[in-house]
Every structure is written in C-alpha cells, then in structure tokens.
Design brief:
This protein is α/β, with parallel strands linked by helices. The radius of gyration is 20 Å and the shape is globular. It starts with 10 loop residues before the first strand and ends with a helix.
Length: 335
C-alpha cells in the first residue's frame, strides 16, 4: 500500500487481468491509489504483472457470492469488468452466470459492506445495431446475441438496486482498443498481410475509443457525485465509416488499404451454415453471424451526457491511437 493511504480508500477491480480492468489498475496505481484485484484461480490470464505494480491479489470468482463478499470487505469502491469473451465457446448459461448472476453478487456485496459506490461496466452492445443516430443512453435497447442480452439483464439488476438506494454507476464503453488489446489484432494483422476483404459497402458506422480515454472516463465514473445512479456512454472522439477505420489501420501498419469489396449476403449464409453444423457438435464455428455483423451493423454513439455531467472528453485522435496500437503490436511480435 502506498504511504498516506488508508484501507478505506482501497479500490477493488473485478476483471483486472482483462484489457480494460488492467488498464484501470495500472493508472490507479500510477496515481498512488491502493488497488485490490479479484482473480480467478483457474484463469488463463497471468496476474503477476498486477502484483508487480503493487496490486493486492485475492482469489475468487464473480459467480460465487461468498468470494465477491470477501473481496469487497475493506474496500471503498468496486469496479466490475468481469465478462466472458464474446465467442461461441462459452455456454449460454455461463454468460448468464457472469453477466447477470455476477452483477447481482457484486450489488449484494456492495450493499452489505456499505461501499461508497460500485461501477458496473456494461457495453454499448446493449443498443445492438443502433436504430437512432447518434445513439444515446435513452435510445432503444436492441441486443442481438446472448452476450448483449445478458448485458441488458445485468443492467436491470443494477437499476433495481438503484431503486433500493444502492450507490452505483453503469457505464457503456464503445469499442475499445490500444496497446495490450488483442481483440482488434485480427483486423490489424489482416490489413498488414494484405488479406482483408470488405464485405458490403463499408458505409456502416463504427465508433472506436482509445483505452487511455476510456480509463479517464472510468475514473470519473468512480469519483464524480454526478455519476451516481446513472448510465453513461463513454466513446471515442467521433465515429467513422468502417471503410475509414480500415484505412486508418492501413496507414498505421504502413500497408496499402484494401480496395476489393464483396457482397455480404453469401458471407451471412455461410456463417449460418457453419453455426448449424458446428454448434450441435460443441465445436466453435470458424465463422459466426456475429462476426458478419461487423460489416453490417451501425455503431454510432454520443458521449454528450458524460461530457456535460462528468467532464469526460476523449483526447486521443483515431490516427494517433491506431499508430500507438500498431507500434505495440510490432514491438511485441504480433505483426
């Protein structure tokens, strides 16, 4: 613990071995904040980098209420970033156990121990293929898969807790990227290798957010009184067309931007066929309808509410963020 801090100031992060939670942990420690991380004993992620920067590690699983209660004891605030990675591999039940049951466990523990607040990380995915442009916090919810559906239900758990007087915040970050992230690596790698193909027109909206900007938003949600019992979208400076995103990535990896475009309908038919064959056999399909949605679904958001109430404002332009991310990929052997 840093000199001059009290146990009552300690901040719990559930999901700190992930990209977002880890970035928040590092930033809080750089500011001298005492941090505790609840880590799963059976996780494939290595928690030692957290320990190396002075994060207190406690073993536990968000789906176990006793574990969550123990982790929340003696802390002032808690952040929840726990969520299964969106793929066909986890069972639907596991999404429910983590994204709904785990949230309920945190809310219960936060109220039991009298935490100053808890901050729940949801997703802009609860809006799905956005029907209102720009999409804002009150726009219709339109979940399109089990991940998004369970995120909606998790938010309902928190909203019900608000009605009972719980002190919490819901945040919906847009598509995050930056050094340390491997979810956008596939796009960078395909563009770098000259094998990326655009399906459809490329004129659908995508709204990336650089991790440093989002971390500033996370901290505001954890500190600002105006954040309590409310929901905030945290996004990047502005949305871009998918075709523009690919051009930004191409520039960052010093590659020619792809020009070929193919119809998206055959790709969707192939995805449905893959899922029909693979899912009953318990095999992860090489192609999902969700992946095809990357080419078809609009993601266009406004962070105006967070700007007005919290002072949130993204500072990293997409060009700079993509360049930093590409540099990290190259330096770490991913490209």
């Amino acid at each position: 613990m840093t000199e001059g801090t009290n146990v009552e100031d300690k901040i719990l992060i559930i999901g700190a071995t992930g990209f977002a939670g880890g970035a928040l942990a590092r930033e809080l420690r750089s500011r001298g904040e005492p941090v505790r991380a609840m880590v799963r004993p059976d996780s494939d992620s290595d928690p030692s980098p957290l320990k190396d920067i002075g994060v207190e590690l406690v073993e536990g699983d968000v789906t176990n209420r006793t574990d969550v209660e123990r982790a929340c004891e003696g802390v002032a605030k808690a952040y929840n970033f726990a969520s299964p990675f969106r793929s066909a591999k986890p069972s639907d039940q596991y999404f429910w156990d983590v994204n709904v049951g785990g949230v309920d466990n945190l809310v219960h523990a936060a109220q039991k121990h009298g935490l100053e607040r808890f901050v729940h990380c949801s997703t802009i995915g609860v809006h799905g293929d956005v029907q209102e442009i720009p999409c804002h916090e009150e726009s219709p919810l339109n979940p399109g898969d089990v991940y998004q559906e369970t995120k909606v239900e998790g938010e309902k758990v928190v909203q019900d807790a608000f009605d009972d007087g719980a002190r919490g915040v819901i945040m919906r970050p847009s598509s995050m990227y930056g050094p340390g992230d491997t979810r956008m690596l596939k796009l960078f790698r395909m563009v770098h290798n000259g094998v990326f193909v655009m399906f459809g027109s490329g004129e659908v909206w995508f709204h990336p957010a650089y991790i440093d900007d989002l971390v500033r938003g996370f901290i505001l949600c954890g500190k600002k009184e105006e954040a309590l019992e409310d929901v905030f979208i945290l996004a990047g400076p502005e949305p871009v067309y998918l075709s523009e995103l690919v051009e930004l990535v191409a520039e960052a990896v010093d590659a020619e931007p792809p020009r070929m475009k193919f119809p998206v309908k055959p790709l969707m038919m192939a995805a449905k066929a893959c899922e029909a064959v693979c899912n009953p056999l318990g095999i992860e399909p090489p192609l999902h309808e969700r992946r095809v949605g990357f080419f078809t679904k609009n993601r266009y958001f406004t962070y105006d509410k967070a700007r007005r109430q919290l002072g949130y404002k993204p500072q990293v332009p997409h060009e700079e963020g993509m360049t930093r991310t590409a540099r990290w990929y190259f330096e770490n052997g991913y490209l």
